[in-house]
Write a sequence for this structure.
């Protein structure tokens, strides 16, 4: 069974001459327990696909399936139990006047869990936050810790699919490493399915095994992580992205790897 | 004096409710006609350093230094009115996000011309010609059309090129670029950097490139200062960055995921409180 299946998805905004086609004929499949990355520049439609999946855009057609179940116009509560999202900016996605405890216990209540007290401490432990964080407010914790709280909130309903919308782009590189490690561990422990949106190819190659490159609303290329690492891209836009993310370093690193092989 | 800029023992302090916060703690460095990178994480004091040089720290923030010399002339103690001549003609600065640094209700061409007219004694028509030339220099294909556009009509990459044009037009000797590409997409990032790099080299200027991206800095600079906790913990030649010795620099380098070198786990930086107390390394030439 596939975790996420998307077939010929079209998403548009506006009507008539104001119509903008944000996603055009997108198709891809993420196996259960897999991790899939969507890359592309701003406006290429990658976040719109996540929004369409979670039912946040009204106008779309095509076919979307989650764990073998086709999605209609409305999402029911069981959908949100299975699918959760982690947003880009932990400064914006946590309520500034709710303590960590309230953020998590409210979520648990909404999903109808009992034994909330124990579950909150377990969630904090799972994302590597000590019990001392439980009664703090978002402004009392650092950016990386906030993102951990956001991840804990997403894990509260014990989902099987996590949608990650640029989860580390607002963080410093050393904190990014911590969050990426946490995401890798969580996926391994809980057999989670990841769909990650990012513009950082190095991050996507670390987390994901399959990647779709988007440009102007279309998926222009699907490739796996080995292709990407070896710069085997067939579409010119993908090669352009790969080159720019390696920067001018590409020549020197090539020379480096040759010399290490020789040594 | 061959250095463009000399900064000695720079301190920047901000009073807070819980006492005085020291953002920059006694750093010294100089800039020749070179590209100098300042790298560090949020809160390391790198942006504050850039602003302090231009005297853009507003009260209650306090700046103190033994000296800040631009081509041997002290700019730390000159009156604010004289400082206006330094900003633009002496040193100019490109900020992170063009959306917030361009005037939203003024045509971009007029904004660039204004920067030129303030510093050069010319006619408006001449300023316009000069602006169009400058727009061409930053690789804008249709300069006449772009001249008449408003900031909301241009993309992020183009906005940043317009900022570069505006900062270059008074002919400064030093350009401070504070995270000039972190608000941009990867695909246009390189293009913007290359334009900036080319102009800086053609004009024999000095560049201070402030960034949190170690790899980017190492490809675009000659020399790098690594800041931590308001101090310079290490300086090195940019192409020798991977030979860096300080554990903080090494930690930063290893915490980056790399496209060309897969790893199962990323190294997590453990911060040693002793780093904050070590004396600042001098970045003087």
């Amino acid at each position: 069974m596939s975790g996420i299946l998307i077939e010929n998805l079209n998403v548009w905004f506006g009507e008539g001459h104001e119509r903008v086609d944000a996603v055009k004929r997108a198709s891809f499949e993420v196996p259960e327990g897999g991790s899939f990355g969507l890359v592309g520049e701003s406006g290429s439609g990658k976040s719109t696909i996540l929004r369409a999946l979670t039912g946040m855009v009204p106008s779309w057609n095509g076919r979307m399936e989650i764990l073998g179940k086709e999605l209609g116009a409305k999402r029911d509560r069981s959908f949100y139990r299975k699918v959760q999202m982690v947003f880009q900016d932990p400064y914006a996605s946590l309520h500034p006047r709710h303590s960590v405890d309230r953020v998590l216990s409210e979520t648990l209540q909404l999903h109808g869990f009992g034994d909330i007290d124990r579950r909150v401490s377990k969630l904090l432990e799972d994302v590597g936050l000590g019990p001392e964080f439980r009664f703090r407010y978002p402004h009392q914790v650092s950016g990386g810790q906030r993102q951990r709280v956001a991840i804990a909130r997403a894990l509260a309903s014990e989902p099987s699919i996590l949608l990650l919308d640029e989860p580390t782009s607002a963080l410093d590189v050393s904190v990014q490493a911590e969050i990426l490690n946490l995401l890798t561990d969580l996926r391994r422990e809980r057999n989670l399915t990841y769909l990650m949106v990012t513009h950082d190819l190095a991050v996507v190659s670390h987390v994901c095994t399959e990647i779709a490159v988007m440009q102007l609303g279309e998926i222009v290329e699907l490739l796996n992580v080995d292709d990407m690492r070896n710069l085997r891209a067939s579409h010119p836009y993908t090669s352009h992205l790969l080159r720019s993310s390696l920067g001018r370093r590409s020549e020197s690193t090539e020379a480096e790897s040759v010399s290490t092989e020789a040594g | 004096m061959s250095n463009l800029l000399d900064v000695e023992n720079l301190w920047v302090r901000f009073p807070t409710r819980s006492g005085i916060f020291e953002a920059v703690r006694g750093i010294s460095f100089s800039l020749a006609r070179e590209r100098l990178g300042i790298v560090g994480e949020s809160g390391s004091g790198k942006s504050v350093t850039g602003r302090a040089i231009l005297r853009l720290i507003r009260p209650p923030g306090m700046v103190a230094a033994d000296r800040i010399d631009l081509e041997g002339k002290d700019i730390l103690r000159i009156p604010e009115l004289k400082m206006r001549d330094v900003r633009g003609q002496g040193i100019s600065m490109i900020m992170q996000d063009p959306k917030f640094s361009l005037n939203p209700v003024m045509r971009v061409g007029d904004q660039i011309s204004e920067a030129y007219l303030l510093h050069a004694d010319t006619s408006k028509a001449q300023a316009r010609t000069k602006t169009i030339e400058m727009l061409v220099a930053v690789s804008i294909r249709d300069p006449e059309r772009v001249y008449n556009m408003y900031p909301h009509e241009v993309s992020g990459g183009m906005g940043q090129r317009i900022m570069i044009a505006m900062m270059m037009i008074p002919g400064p000797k030093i350009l401070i670029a504070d995270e000039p590409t972190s608000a941009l997409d990867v695909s246009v990032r390189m293009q913007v950097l290359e334009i900036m790099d080319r102009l800086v080299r053609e004009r024999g200027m000095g560049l201070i490139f402030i960034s949190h991206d170690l790899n980017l800095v190492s490809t675009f600079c000659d020399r790098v200062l690594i800041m931590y906790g308001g101090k310079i913990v290490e300086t090195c030649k940019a192409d020798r960055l991977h030979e860096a010795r300080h554990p903080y620099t090494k930690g930063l380098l290893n915490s980056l995921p790399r496209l060309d070198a897969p790893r199962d786990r990323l190294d997590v930086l453990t911060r040693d409180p002793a780093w904050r107390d070590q004396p600042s390394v001098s970045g003087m030439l």
